[in-house]
Write a structure and sequence with these properties.
heterodimer; A: 374 residues; alpha+beta; 3 domains; nine-stranded antiparallel β-sheet; four-stranded antiparallel β-sheet; 21 strands; B: 174 residues; mainly alpha; Rna Polymerase Sigma Factor, Chain: A; Arc Repressor Mutant, subunit A; 2 domains; 8 helices
């Protein structure tokens, strides 16, 4: 056998192939073929070594992403709805990974800033319109691979039940945007009752992928509720998120609303709930903010044990605890009331929301709990 | 294959966790593979993204007699070729390659590898780095197994030659 004829078998040996006896004998005796064999083996090994040099960087990016995601899967709950967006996460442009919490926009509230549209914008403003209802839910998803790529929330569908909804940006290709959606409708029992929303529950739901084209309507079938309509609009920036589309700056009667609140003690900022907002309507409700290591703040229009009076001025509440002056600043008017009642529990601890959380809940429910409701 | 079929069925049902696992395992490898075929890391990232999207869209494309990874890399190979066509619609540029190294730097295997044509690069990479079998390579590249065998031998010969010439040139230039 000639070396030229054996060459293909030399290559085959490198791949673990069995070769004909004649070729095996030739390669065993031929120095030239044996050199080829050694060179091929060396070149292959060197290629794999070179490839391995790139691997850690790529893998670590993914691992970082997953680590961030695990951190993000913290449990938190409260009635009606919530919004949270304080944790920084890195999401590569092509991130098929779950990420809950972060910004949420919900059912009743206001538009603080109407965002500009931009056909090439990196932000997708999605609006979910519920069937047979004037309720809608809105949320802005960043598609730039940074933070705020997912949001979730619960919505009280009056007299019918409670909707849990989560949406996340998956990928973008041209005009089409892949979204992962989780949803569950919990119908109201004949005896009434209340619902508690938990992102942990939402995470246990199957996620389905949808393809949305901005400007087009996408129907989302929600078992027990009907077909909801999802639309998307591209924006050139992350909007100050509307709590609901087409509302006003003026809080509704008995509404308590907190948008991106910042709590100052003297001149020191002790809680910064940037991108986190909550609202609810009803005198028996309260907005709560939990900042790990700092404490829990409860703000209610009703007086309650352990609370001090706070003076409301548009988007600001001034109060005093233990001789120290506090200011709670929000991104929009908080309530129509002139006074509210505030409790700041510095000893409050909860492992359920290590990244901090904000929500609205019934006051008696909050006070009955020594920890953030879950 | 049975595992791949089950995984594929879960992905088709919209099981994101199944897709996550598949993505986590394969995305870096796919991007590394595409990095050998395309001109920039950004292009490799873009095409990797398109590849995964196409995988999800064409759910009838996967045949259970091959592996899911082979199917993925097959899509990537075609998307890479398409990417090059988009860069040069006239088809004149045969580019399909990264910047060619100068001869005096050709002693590194990586440099020699970069001088192979795109088909040889993808074939060798899939075999040597990804460990794809001949049968899977045949599926990915759409050629008979026998052709895989002969093309692999040719690619190795070419790589060795370029690498060897580079060594000689470098020695002479000292």
């Amino acid at each position: 056998m000639r070396c030229e004829d054996a060459e293909e078998f030399v290559s085959g040996l490198c791949d673990g192939e069995r070769i004909p006896r004649e070729a095996a004998e030739h390669i065993g005796e031929c120095e030239k073929c044996r050199t080829w064999l050694q060179d091929y083996a060396m070149l292959g090994a060197e290629l794999r070594r070179t490839a391995s040099l790139d691997s850690p960087k790529n893998v670590s990016a993914i691992q970082h992403l997953l680590t961030s995601t695990k951190r993000a899967k913290e449990k938190r709950s409260f009635e009606v709805w919530w919004k949270k967006g304080a944790e920084a996460m890195r999401i590569p442009r092509f991130a098929f990974v779950l990420m809950l919490l972060l910004i949420v926009g919900l059912s009743s509230g206001l538009v603080v800033v109407r965002a500009r549209s931009n056909a090439q914008g990196p932000v997708l403003l999605v609006t979910l319109k519920l069937p047979n209802s004037d309720l809608s839910w809105q949320c802005a998803l960043s598609m730039n691979g940074q933070q705020n790529g997912a949001c979730s929330g619960g919505m009280d569908v009056k007299k019918r039940g409670f909707l849990e909804f989560g949406i996340q940006f998956l990928a973008r290709q041209g005009d089409k945007i892949a979204l992962g959606i989780r949803r569950q409708f919990l119908p109201l029992s004949p005896n009434g009752g209340s619902f508690t929303f938990s992102t942990a529950d939402l995470e246990n739901l199957p996620i389905e992928q949808y393809e949305l084209e901005p400007g087009q309507k996408l129907q989302i079938d929600i078992e027990g509720l009907g077909k909801a309509e999802l639309t998307g609009e591209l924006l050139d920036h992350m909007p100050v998120l509307p709590l609901a589309p087409y509302a006003t700056l003026d809080p509704a009667q008995d509404e308590l609303r907190m948008i991106s609140p910042l709590l100052l003690r003297g001149r020191e900022a002790i809680i910064d709930m940037d991108h986190g907002s909550a609202t609810g309507t009803g005198k028996d409700g309260a907005v709560w903010i939990h900042a790990p290591g700092v404490g829990r703040l409860i703000v209610s229009a009703e007086n309650f044990p352990g609370a001090v009076k706070g003076q409301v001025s548009q988007s600001r509440i001034d109060f005093e605890i233990g001789g120290k002056q506090y200011q709670l600043l929000a991104g929009a008017p908080i309530t129509r009331a002139q006074d509210v009642w505030v409790q700041f529990d510095r000893n409050f601890q909860s492992s359920e929301s290590p990244g901090g959380a904000i929500g609205w809940a019934k006051l008696d429910y909050l006070l009955a709990k020594q920890a953030t409701p879950d | 294959m049975a595992d791949d079929r089950e995984l594929w069925e879960r992905i088709c049902r919209g099981d994101i966790s199944a897709f996550e696992g598949f993505y986590r395992e394969n995305a870096p490898r796919l991007q590394a593979f595409l990095g050998q075929l395309l001109s920039t890391p950004q292009a490799a990232e873009d095409v990797a993204q398109e590849t995964f999207l196409q995988l999800l869209k064409r759910q009838n494309g996967f045949r259970p007699d091959t592996s899911l990874r082979a199917y993925l890399f097959g899509i990537a190979k075609r998307r890479a070729a398409e990417w090059w066509r988009q860069q040069d619609p006239t088809g004149e540029a045969t580019g399909e390659g990264t910047d060619r190294p100068k001869a005096e730097t050709c002693s590194l295997v990586g440099d020699a590898f970069a001088k192979l044509d795109a088909d040889q690069r993808s074939l060798l990479w899939l075999r040597e780095v990804e460990g794809q079998s001949y049968a899977h390579l045949a599926g990915i590249l759409g050629i008979p197994v026998g052709t895989v065998r002969s093309r692999l031998a040719a690619a190795r010969r070419e790589l060795r030659q370029i690498w060897h010439d580079g060594q000689v040139i470098k020695k002479e230039s000292r």
